[in-house]
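Researcher: Next sequence.
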Amino acid sequence: MKIGILGGTFDPIHLGHLRTAEEVGEALGLKKVYLIPSASPPHKTGEPVTPFFHRLEMTRIATDESPLLEALDLEGKRPGLSYSIETLKELCNTLGPECDLYFILGTDAFIEIETWKEYYKLFDYAHFVVIRRAGHEVISLEPFLISIREDIKKTALPDIYVTGSNKNVIIMSSTLMEISSTHIRREAARGRSIRFLVPHSVGEYITRKGLYLNHAGAR
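Model: Next structure:
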């Protein structure tokens, strides 16, 4: 069974997140792609983050529109900072050895992976699917891959590498949608439309709950 994982702050979740998850799921024949909101993002400890229950609920209502996607409340149940290595270990223990995990992230996040907790071990628990992001399309990741794990080797297939633990690193492209959660928060705070940036149901939730009205970057 092949399962995808897309984590993020999702503050708020937007169409770029959802389209990436949908396209990767279809391209790799995944049974399900779990979108996992980070309860306490380690790289955003100094920034204000919308309460977890709002971000989880927005993720739930957004993924309701696709049978392939599903929100998973995993990190909200753990105390402390939300580390990907702990999430992968928990999923492997829960789903069992017959499950292949595919960890989805963008090149912008991947090139920072050496700052993650126990980053070297992440490749022992899941295949990695690295999505080319706007502004990073021409970056060659091969030298970087070799620098972070000496056992990563190129395969005969283009843009696919394999680790010593027999996990693949797959470089993929998806529909480039230059949408950012920061921009959405700023527009919402200014009273501007966020239509066509987030699912309609998420936009309604943001309005109903009065989220982002006091966003610091509004001015």
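Model: The two ends are 48 Å apart (CA to CA). The chain has one domain: 2-178.
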